[in-house]
Amino acid sequence: MSTAEAAATAEAREPGTRIKSSSPRQIPAVGVVTQDEEAQGVFTSMDLNRVIKLLEETEKDDLEEKQLKSVKKVVQCYQNGLPLRDLAQIFKILNLCAGKIKKQPHFIEPAYNILKLCGLPFLKKKVSDEITYAEDTANSIALLGDLMKVPSSELRIQICKCIIDFYHAEPPKQHIPEVNCTLMVKAQAASGICAHLDDPDPSGQLLFRSSEILWNLLEKSSKEEIIQQLSNLECVLALKEVFKNLLTRGFSHYDRQLRNDILVITTIIAQNPGAPMIECGFTRDLILFATFNEVKSQNPLVKGLKLSNSYEDFELKKLLFNIIVILCKDLSTIQLLIDGKVILALFSYVKKPEKQKIIEWSAAQYEELQLHAIATLSSVAPFLTEEYMLCQGNARVLAFLEWCESEDSFFSHGNSFHGTGGRGNKFAQMRYSLRLLRAMVYLENETINKDLCEKGTVQQLLGIFKNTISKYNDKEEAILLEIQSDILLILSGLCEHHIPRKEIFGTEGVDIILHVMKTDPKKLQTGLGYNVLLFSTLDSIWCCILGCYPLEDYFLEKEGIFLLLDLLALNPQKFCNLILGIMVEFCDNPKTAAHVNAWRGKKDQTAASLLIKLWRKEEKELGVKRDKHGKIIDTKKPLFTSFQEKQKITPLPANCPTIAVMDVAENIRAKIYAVLGKLDFENLPGLSAEDFVTLCIIHRYLDFKTGEIWNEIYEEIKLEKLRPVTMDKNILESITTASENIGKMVASLQSEMIESQACQDVQNEQKVYTKIQATHKQRELANKSWENFLARTSNAKTLKKAKRLQEKAIESSRRSKQPPNAVFHWTDIKGLNTTVPSGRVVTVESTPARLVGGPLADTDIALKKLPIRGGALQRVKAVKTVDEPKKSVPT
Question: Where would I find the Cilia- and flagella-associated protein 69 ARM repeats domain in this sequence (predicted)?
Answer without folding.
Answer: 46-176, 178-713
